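quick q for whoever's on today - can somebody do inverse folding on this one?? i tried earlier but teh output was garbage lol. tokens:
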């Protein structure tokens, strides 16, 4: 595009890019409009986006499905501050010639570090112990060890690969499941691919890192949780829909598994009442695995890089089909 364009940040809440110097890099290409609150409804979302050629989707809570995309005649490109694209209907975007650029693997070390830390928080019952001491109680519970245990990774993309590296670094045996295993990939990652049932039955820690698709929705539900060891820990750093939260709450309440760490939820913000919140050995974070200063700016820079590449005629990381 040679002419100046209109670029929209439709709902930067929580704050992601509003104070970033990366936005200034776009000023030579066009006018940037940023909203610091999420649109309240469909009409407000379309009202904000009408007439814009580019959307910089800084938060996944603002979604772009068929109705939204078909209402925006001028839209040419969506850049995300994320790896995941489940907030966008990629098929419709592709049909309408809208480029969608995500950031595969950009913050994998940051996200894996968070999930690795969450594993220790669950294993050492840190949330429970902290709450008890704050209430003036000196309650003892048996913690779980990590070194020498089996880490089972579900999904071996960039984040899963980094989790495997961290697991090996502390002396864990690493096994994994993926839709497309290969001997070369197993050798590169220093792990062994197994069937999902074997992973669930064998692993002391199960860590989820698959994309959310029709094939992975509720990939882990009651039948899968029943296969896990009674003291096993479950981590979800993928998407909320990969895990049946009702089934997890039931498994924790019954003692079928030992604990869980969740950074993602099917409903975000996760503010409604749910039985999982009453479970003792659970650690929650608010979809914050990449929220370090370094991770935040990596994503901001990556989104702006993708927009500039598109405007200069060489779009990259286009996942619309």
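ok took a stab at it. sequence:
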């Amino acid at each position: 595009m040679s002419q100046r364009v209109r670029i929209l940040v439709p709902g930067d809440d929580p704050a992601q890019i509003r104070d970033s110097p990366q936005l200034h890099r776009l000023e030579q290409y066009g006018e940037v409009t940023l909203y610091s609150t999420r649109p309240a409804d469909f009409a407000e979302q379309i009202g904000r986006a009408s007439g814009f050629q580019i959307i910089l989707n800084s938060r996944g809570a603002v979604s772009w499905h068929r109705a939204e995309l078909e209402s925006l005649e001028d839209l040419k490109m969506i850049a995300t501050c994320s790896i995941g694209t489940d907030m966008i209907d990629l098929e419709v975007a592709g049909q309408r010639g809208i480029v969608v650029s995500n950031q595969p693997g950009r913050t994998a070390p940051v996200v894996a570090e968070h999930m690795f830390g969450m594993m220790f928080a669950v294993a050492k019952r840190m949330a429970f112990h902290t709450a008890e001491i704050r209430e003036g109680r000196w309650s003892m519970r048996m913690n779980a060890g990590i070194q020498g245990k089996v880490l089972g990774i579900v999904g071996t993309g960039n984040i899963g690969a980094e989790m495997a590296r961290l697991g090996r670094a502390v002396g864990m045996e690493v096994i994994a499941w993926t839709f497309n295993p290969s001997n070369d990939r197993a050798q590169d990652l220093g792990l062994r691919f197994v069937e999902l049932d074997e992973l669930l039955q064998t692993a002391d820690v199960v860590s989820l890192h698959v994309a959310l698709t029709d094939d992975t929705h509720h990939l882990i539900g009651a039948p899968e949780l029943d296969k896990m060891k009674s003291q096993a820990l479950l981590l979800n750093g993928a998407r909320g829909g990969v895990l049946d939260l009702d089934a997890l709450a039931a498994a924790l309440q019954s003692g079928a598994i030992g604990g869980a760490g969740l950074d993602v939820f099917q409903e975000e913000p996760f503010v409604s009442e749910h039985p999982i919140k009453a479970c003792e050995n659970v650690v929650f974070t608010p979809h914050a695995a990449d929220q370090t200063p370094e991770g935040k700016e990596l994503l901001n820079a990556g989104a702006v890089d993708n927009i500039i590449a598109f405007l200069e005629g060489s779009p990259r990381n286009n996942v619309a089909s």
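fwiw The chain has two domains: 5-106+293-311, 108-284. also DSSP finds eleven helices and twelve strands in the chain. so keep that in mind when u check it
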